[in-house]
Specification:
heterodimer; A: alpha/beta; five-stranded parallel beta sheet; two-stranded antiparallel sheet; B: alpha/beta; five-stranded mixed beta sheet; 12 helices; 14 strands; globular
Chain lengths: 305, 318
Amino acid sequence: MAQASTVSIDQLKEIARSVRKHILEMTAAANSGHPGGSLSAVEIVTALYFAIMRHDPKNPAMPERDRFILSKGHATPVIYSVLAEAGYFSVDELLTFRKLGSKLQGHVIMGKPPGVEMSAGALGMGLSFSLGQALAGRLDKRDYNVYCLISDGDSQEGQTWEAAMSSAHHKVGNLVAIMDRNHIQNDGYSDFQRTPRDVREPSHLSGGFVLSDGHTANIMNLEPVDDKWKAFGWKVIRVNDGNDFSQVIPALEEARDYNEGPAIVICETIKGKGISYMENNPDFHGKAPNPEELKQGLRELGFDA
Amino acid sequence: MPVQTYGEKATREVFGPTLARLCEAGLDVVCVDADLGVSTSAVKFGAKFPERFFPVGVAEQNMIGVAAGLAAAGKVAFVSSFAVFAPGHCFDQLRMAVAQPRTNVKLFASHAGIVTGEDGASAEGLEDLALMLSMPPFAVLFPADSVECEQAIECAARTDGPFYIRALRPKTPIIFDDKYRFELGKWPRLRDGKDVTIIACGELVKSALDAAEILAAESIEARVFNASSLRPMDTDAVLESAEETGAIVTAEDHFVFGGLGTIVSQALSEQRPAPMEFVGMRDRYGTSGTWKELLEHFNLTPEAIAQAARNVIARKSR
């Protein structure tokens, strides 16, 4: 059983570097996909599968396994890459991503490949499903934990807050949400935190507005997000750099070990992390690198290209 | 001769008690509830199995997601609401978390149809069959009375995969005795005839039988089917009846778009065209009134079904 608490930070960084390489290569090969929000979550998902979760790539249906639910279902490149690195299927298969006949569809499909716990792609649904899994674990007296990765966009869907309310109501100590807080979504910037510096909110407009480059600024400000989750009855753990294993892992451990109710780890991350031209760039929310961009990206990661 | 009945009972009344019976029999049943468990009788299950009953508040989207999570962990996950709220308020959740991954979730939707009555148009689900039939993995059932409803619930519990069971608010006549057996995908022939076939579902099955009595007085022999299993449907019954009677009437308490009439006409037009008439709601929403008044007001009566039969028979010779 792969319970890899013995993996060192250096080893995790090396896995993360490979995962980033896969994300670039598979989206480039598909000429589509969502690299930005995959790259922001690399440390979170890698930490879960290699340092936190109890799971077995050879027995993905093991009843006692910890569950990982990808609510931001477009971030398939990161979950597929991590599952492949963990041994759920061959790394070579990653290049079939989004192609006819592949198990690796553009958005996650339950059971395809083995290890994917839930279908997603419509935002806001993962936390409800995770709560159901947590309730079943409690009813069956199994001691697994359920980890649900949500995004900025997820947090704007009403269902997420229905699930937040009912998770605290049912006091599920085996449920952990993780927010990949990269402040960027499909149309642009969730708030002003990553909006280019020279942009200021026009005084006559409240709410979002479209910038000259076509992106929308201040789509839906979630602040104060910590207070929202606290008010909904969750334990809130804040990670200032969600792309730093040394911060992510202790926070996930603290959330895992908190059993009085649900806990959320809010990770500040960088969309497109690790690839200079993708960092904080809304264009790469849902766009693949072209061949030149792929080469540059691989060089930046330290791979020959 | 009037159609024999065995008293009256709302189909919704058997939901919670049946779940409790099935759980006592060893099925791994759970139920998620969005604050309508008193109305759907889900609380009858919750009172007996509190650890298996999960209130989530007025939150149908979350209800479906939680049920899908429970189902994926091995539970037979029932949810209940009103047809206007589920599927009405959570279509995408049913599509993503239930239909596509084929999770073992069973949606029991009460207060369907115009017979919801006094609550008026907003509460009268007239689109739910169209929504549910649009998702192929769902079995879609509309029992004709409480006897059949209990069996439909048991069938859903014992058959792996997504189910939708449509139920009604008012106490409607019980038309089956305890020898009746519901069978998935099979439409019981309740009356035989050679001149016309009436295919009905829900409370209009009784009306179809009454219509056949009206027609019999005019020497018209009507065949009557109970189409309680809309998916899987009994295509053989449709094709055989088109061949043998040459004229089909459908009757449903639902818009005529996307429900029973639609699936029957699709089967006919693909394989054995025959003239058809559609009895159902058309072009306007409901209103308040007693359920019996509304059936009269919107022309969902035995006489309306009989008239549709006369009309379709007249079209046979054209």
